[in-house]
TrEMBL record, chains A, B:
Keyword Cell cycle among UniProt keywords: no
Identification of the protein by name: Phosphate-specific transport system accessory protein PhoU
Function: Plays a role in the regulation of phosphate uptake.
Family as reported in the entry's similarity comment: Belongs to the PhoU family.
Domain of life, per lineage: Bacteria
Keywords linked to the UniProt accession: Cytoplasm, Phosphate transport, Transport
NCBIfam families, alphabetized: phoU_full (TIGR02135)
Cytoplasm as UniProt keyword: yes
Annotated localization: Cytoplasm
Length: 215, 215
């Protein structure tokens, strides 16, 4: 009976890691759609979010069932509760990839991001990608040290966001209002993607150490 | 023993309702700071978020303790899990009120919002306020009909956001890049505040009907 329980718990964590990989791919696809004005790819990200939503709901159902039927205590309870919180993060990360894809779609056949700003957006996307990848490994391996390193990567994201806003507001902006607004919102979306990766990592640290870090 | 359990459960719901009121006040104060360029008020919202964070953590602790010690099943379990999810919403709503206050602070002594745009921001803030107030009553009274009406109010928020972006991008914008970006982000913050109120209401509907509405 308990063996079966731990099998189910492991399978939930496996599915959480797989879902993190799915979300990571969605973010990468949304960024590619954005930088290449690729309409079909943007549509596939937007349509694909239903699968993320359904997977979130399916894992949530199984987690609740385990909570209800096995009535776990202590660290097992914490694991299941952390799973529910991480599912909220993943759901939001899926929605954020859709937001990026929708900015891409809105400007097609143009590329929403002016050429000069593409390196900044690429750097933000790449930082978000690293952070989501790290979160996935942290969940899979309960790696507290990697969670600390993730906070450093988040500082890099912060630096990139500030750089983006300095460029937008520096007085030499010549691309008009529309790309400026697109970029401000895109900057926010990538920043939030990173925040959710940090939030997932903090849940794991809490599981391992029993101490919650403030946000 | 069970009586004490239900007392604790009721007290958690009461505290959730109170916290929703606190967050609602923070949003109203942030909007007032924004529209009046009121520095001390903006600072008080930013500093006050620590109290929201601490209250969230305290309620979360008590919810987990109840989960661990009482091992509730069925609807009691769902109530506690819904509480954890609503705490995530409230935590984010607190953070969003801080974001609004920080836009205010950044532009002081100027008012971040150009005079012509103030009615739109007031309407968005007022809609968010109504939605948070409705969410609070829905949580307190498990009012499923009010949750349906809340979705209509969310449509109004959507309409206001579209109106805001039409003005920003309509070609007659004469206030420059900085206010345009501020307004795009502010629009997003108020919209997200409304989204979280809807999310809270949906959790209550799920508790009452057992059916989760898709987002």
């Amino acid at each position: 009976m308990r063996d079966q329980y731990y099998e189910q718990l492991d399978s939930i964590v496996d599915d959480l890691v797989t879902l993190t990989g799915t979300v990571r791919k969605a973010v990468a696809a949304a960024t590619a759609a954005l930088l290449n004005a690729d309409g079909p790819l943007a549509e596939s990200v937007i349509a694909g979010d239903r699968e993320v939503e359904e997977t979130v709901e399916a894992i949530e159902e199984r987690t609740l069932l385990l909570l209800a039927t096995q009535q776990p205590v202590a660290s097992d309870l914490r694991q299941l509760v952390a799973t529910l919180r991480m599912l909220t993060d993943l759901q939001r990360m899926g929605a954020l990839s859709v937001h990026v894809a929708k900015v891409a779609r809105l400007r097609i056949p143009d590329v929403a991001v002016p050429t000069a700003m593409q390196p900044t957006i690429m750097a933000m996307a790449s930082t978000a990608d690293q952070m989501i990848h790290a979160a996935s490994r942290i969940v899979a391996e309960r790696d507290v040290d990697a969670a600390t390193r993730l906070e450093d990567t988040d500082d890099e994201m912060d630096r990139l966001r500030k750089q983006l806003f300095r460029t937008l507001l520096g007085g030499n902006w010549e691309h008009g209002i529309e790309p400026a607004i697109d970029l401000a919102l895109l900057g926010r979306y990538y920043e939030r993607l990173g925040d959710h990766a940090v939030s997932m990592a903090r849940r794991v640290v809490y599981l391992v150490t029993g101490e919650m870090q403030s946000s």
